[in-house]
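Q: Could you fold this chain for me?
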Amino acid sequence: MNNRNRPTLIILLGPTGVGKTALSIKIANHFQTEIISCDSRQLFKEMQIGTAVPEEGFLKQVPHHFIQSNSIFESYNVAMFETEVLERLKTLFAIHPVVMMTGGSMLYIDVVCKGIDDLPDVDPELRATLMERMKVEGIEQIRAELKLLDPVYYHEVDLQNPVRIIHALEICYITGKPFSSQRTRTKKQRAFNILKIGLNRDRTELYDRINNRVDGMMASGLEAEARNLYPYRELNTLNTVGYREMFDYFDGNCLLGEAIGKIKANSRKYARKQLTWFRKDPDIHWFHPDQEAEILKLITDYRLHIKD
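A: Sure. Below is the predicted structure, expressed as structure tokens.
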């Protein structure tokens, strides 16, 4: 199948709080299609308020996929997401020439566009040993070990994410080589065209929206939601902005107002991290969320002028 006859995946991405949800609904309705969510936390049905799952009114307007489809008690990772999304796209592209995907989870977007490296299977005993060591020795010791074995990845990884740190150490131990040296980053070919559209706002405007959204979450019951999840706080899924700050509050490490302030600050920090990641991708076409007409024109022109 040549490029002209291939279906198109439109990816609407951007930092947290920028306004992706509302615009994705408008675009999906315009092209009479469906939406795949690429938010690594909206996947989980126990996490609704703190992950800003779209309101029911939005979800009813357009069929959505991969929103609250899993439980925090089920094992899930980016490789599984790649497999499941590609299978779902086969079904959707049989009906729609255009499908939307929207969200801000950088790795989840990349894995759909480029694929993921085939790395060796992990020894469950080794993983259990590393997890136990982290509990006994603390995450700082595990970080120091990664820095020694793979300094390149140490400076790339989210040092607040123990799962990724431990996974990298597992690969180092199994293969005897740095994890970073085994990521070929060879782009896999997809059976569809990909058009990436990025949304951004002036920094002050974006930060105000983020702060207001956190206030809205608190008003909607984030504290109660987090308290229900508190017994399971050791799950990596719950190592998420909005929940971990509330857990600190429940532990007595800060006052409620301080916890809310930390949620806002960490959300703004995450938005900066997202933008830094996305700006490295030259294929993204950037717009302000208010530029709906220009975005629709870009998509239409792209579909009309795809070259073989």
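A (continued): The chain has two domains: 3-116+187-220+271-304, 124-182.
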